Amino acid sequence: QLQLQESGPGLVKPSETLSLTCSVSGGSISSRNYYWGWIRQPPGKGLEFIGSIYYSGNTYYNPSLKSRVTVSVDTSKNQFSLKLNSVTAADTAVYYCARQRATRDNWFDPWGQGTLVTVSS
Amino acid sequence: QSVLTQPPSASGTPGQRVTISCSGSSSNIGSNTVNWYQQLPGTAPKLLIYRNDQRPSGVPDRFSGSKSGTSASLAISGLQSEDEADYYCAAWDDSLNGPVFGGGTKLTVL
């Protein structure tokens, strides 16, 4: 059964870079049928797509975050990562990683449990 | 402000049928399929409906989805207390070239 697990610092200072890794187990990140995505949820608010990556390295990002986001993949470790620079308090959220169907249907399934990242000095 | 519009709340009594709407535009729901996610309190979202009306294995047939034009709906029949959760619709947006979500609907079972 495919499982995803986010990891990384739970506290980041304003103006610094948020870095998270998603470890995939029970399946290969090199599957041709899927992208691998990041989604976040500010406390008490809804879901926001951040960006996704294919095992080959092809990426696409939310236009509103594109200038600050980098998603990368390490197929040898079966992991993919998120970097969000110049963070502010508005970036405080639970960050989820998820497998994403590589078609325009693009559903996310399964999801990791999520990790809370707080931006504060 | 979410690209897809959902009512912020919905409610029903046990056994009742409730529907949650999701409104979009020609660049998202009007030209692509809709997915629905269920988020139980304190947990990660879970795929509930994909490709408008398909249920992943393990999802009860009490949950059903439909789409017409630029709107979609999630119906829950035989409402149960464990259905109390937040529900999100999502679809690919051709203009933004990425997936977009609705703002979510909090379902309360009275």
Chain-wise SSE layout:
The complex is a heterodimer of chains A (121) and B (110).
Chain A: E1 3-7, E2 11-12, E3 18-25, E4 34-41, E5 48-53, E6 59-61, E7 69-74, E8 79-84, E9 93-101, E10 108-111, E11 115-119
Parallel strand pairs in A: 2-11
Antiparallel strand pairs in A: 1-3, 3-8, 4-5, 4-9, 5-6, 7-8, 9-10, 9-11
Chain B: E1 9-12, E2 18-23, E3 34-39, E4 46-49, E5 63-68, E6 71-76, E7 85-93, E8 98-101, E9 105-109
Parallel strand pairs in B: 1-9
Antiparallel strand pairs in B: 2-6, 3-4, 3-7, 5-6, 7-8, 7-9
3D architecture notes:
- The complex is a heterodimer of chains A (about 120) and B (about 110).
- In chain A, about 0% of the residues lie in helices and about 50% in strands.
- Chain A has about 120 residues and is mostly beta strands.
- In chain A, strands 2, 4, 5, 6, 9, 10 and 11 form a seven-stranded mixed sheet that branches. A four-stranded antiparallel sheet of chain A has the order 1-3-8-7, with no helix packed on it.
- The radius of gyration of chain A is 13 Å and the shape is globular.
- Chain A starts with a strand and ends with a strand.
- The model of chain A has no long low-confidence stretch (mean pLDDT about 95).
- Chain B starts with 8 loop residues before the first strand and ends with a strand.
- Chain B has strands at about 10, 20-25, 35-40, 45-50, 65-70, 70-75, 85-95, 100, 105-110.
- The relative contact order of chain B is 0.34.
- In chain B, the strands form two sheets. In chain B, strands 1, 3, 4, 7, 8 and 9 form a six-stranded mixed sheet that branches. Chain B has a three-stranded antiparallel sheet with strand order 2-6-5, with no helix packed on it.
- In chain B, β7 and β8 (about 100) form a beta hairpin.
- Chain B has about 110 residues and is an all-beta fold.
- The mean pLDDT of chain B is about 95.
- At the A-B interface, β5, β9 and β10 of A face β7 and β8 of B.
